[in-house]
Amino acid sequence: MGTESGGYACAMTLPQKRILLALALCLSAGLTVASTIEGRVVGVADGDTVTVLDAGKVVQHKVHLTGIDASEKARPFGRRAKQNLSNWVFGKQLQVETNKSDLYGRALGNVMAGCN
Asked: Over the stretch 102-116, which tens digit does the pLDDT of each residue have?
């Protein structure tokens, strides 16, 4: 099946393309590496986002807490959500288990407080 230019044509059907895409997504999902951030909370942006200064005091990590859907600061109860999170974690040592980032570059993580 040569073409006039001497190359070969590759015609994939829509189902074949979908299978190939699904396979690529499955393989890329297995390449994510979980990591743990250990450090002190130095900032609370809102009711579900904190800034953690790593234990080496070199890098600040903005972390969006998974499993929490708190109101944004400008929304009803947003200030209260931020204050409650601040009361719970600000200045404390914690560990964040993360394996991906969101669209804003924040690490998405599960937080364990009181680890030190």
From this structure: 888 888 998 886 655
Closest CA to 101 of 6, 35, 43: 35
| Residue 8 pLDDT level (bands cut at 50, 70, 90) | low
The one-letter amino acid at 83 = Q
Which of the four CATH numbers 3.50.50.60, 2.40.100.10, 2.40.50.90, 2.60.60.30 does domain 35-113 have? 2.40.50.90
Rounded to whole angstroms, the Cα distance separating 90 from 84 reads: 10
- Domain parsing of the chain, residue ranges: 35-113
Predicted structure pTM score: 0.66
Four-residue CA torsion sign, 109, 95, 93, 114: positive
Work out whether strand 35-46 and strand 49-54 pair parallel, antiparallel, or are unpaired: antiparallel
